[in-house]
Specification:
The strands form two sheets. Strands 7-6-5-9-8-10 form a six-stranded parallel sheet. Strands 1-4-2-3 form a four-stranded mixed sheet. The longest helix is centred in the C-terminal third of the chain and has 14 residues, at 237-250. Helix content is 31%, strand content 22%. The chain is an alpha/beta fold.
Length: 253
Amino acid sequence: MVSVATLKWIHTLSQKKHRDEQALFVAEGHKTIGELLPYFPCKMVLTTEEQWQLYPLNLDKQTQLLKAPLQAMERASAQKTPQGMVAVFEKPKEKTTTENLIPGLYLALDGVQNPGNLGTIIRLADWFGIRQLFCSFDSADVFNPKTVQATMGSLGRVHLSYVDLVELISKNKEHLPVFGTFLEGDSLFSMPLPTNALVVLGSEGNGISPQVAACIPHALKIPSFPVGALTAESLNVATAAAIICAEFRRTAF
């Protein structure tokens, strides 16, 4: 049996303060947990007997396996409807540099504060073979439970770093094309796109901040159709990221 104190402790990791202090994060659901196991040391898996019988995982000897009824797991879960399996993973140590990025396609997110959008973009990056993302310091926390769940396990294959975007762009724009997404700029569909680039996306509410925008040499827009018609004010940032990634990767075929 699992103690009430343990259930409460797991639930506290839904708060960034506790995740940072203990260098831990939580994932829920057998599929997400199974995807993350090869990439992050797992301290504990809490599950119902039924879930474990249906979806047994190959756990390391150092991982503690605890079982509890579904009703008890509600104390540990950050979700409205618990999935019957919760895991506590160790956060990786931050290792990043803003200097001399090697050729490749990179995304940088400026002020994207919705954790679900961040997680979806990480999943998109994984799909399109983008292994490095950069975020401004005021972006959502990558280890927020909603972010982790939205990645559907892609978090293990995509490295995300929090950096000063102005510094990142300034140190790389001489050898790596840098693009930003704006409401005004060259149409994404009408200009030749390089295979290697750093693409900056802003939040839906504020777009790219003025300080970062001033450093970006090339402005791109995703045009709405038909031209001149009344449409939505902007696209969801994750939707925009999907369109942009698809267009940049299309040049590789």
